[in-house]
Amino acid sequence: xxxKLIAYSAYMILSILTSLTVASIPIIFFxxxxxxxxxxxxxxxxxxxxxxHAWFIAVFGPYMPQIAIEKFWxxxxxxxxxxxxxxxxxxxxxxxxxxxxxxIPYLEDGYHSVEESMLIYEYYEIYYVIFPFFAxxxxxxxxxxxxx
Length: 148
Prior knowledge:
Blueprint: H1 3-45, H2 49-60, H3 66-70, H4 72-76, H5 78-101, H6 114-134, H7 136-142
Helix pairs in contact: 1-5, 1-6, 5-6
């Protein structure tokens, strides 16, 4: 294997790992921000949130753990919050994959040997191949099939 192909391989691996890290860190902070502040925000809005929370405490309070009472609205909206965070993660990840793909050249025919050009072409296309593995859940809603 030529040193250039080894460098492209290292770039591809590092760019995928960096893309995953860069895409996940802001989403983790956003999720934790919502965990800390969503209940206070919705309770601050007043009606109907205060009445629903008071009814929940009156009916289910003795049977629920303290965290369920303190973080009632976060737990109530946990699934939509998770979907929003996941979709933001996918959007950032797609942007990072598109940026990372620019580091691998698109080869003209006949410039490299067949083995080398096929390997670089696979490196060039890998970002589109692995993205559906992260987006499989939303593909159920969109009725699309992953490209691989």
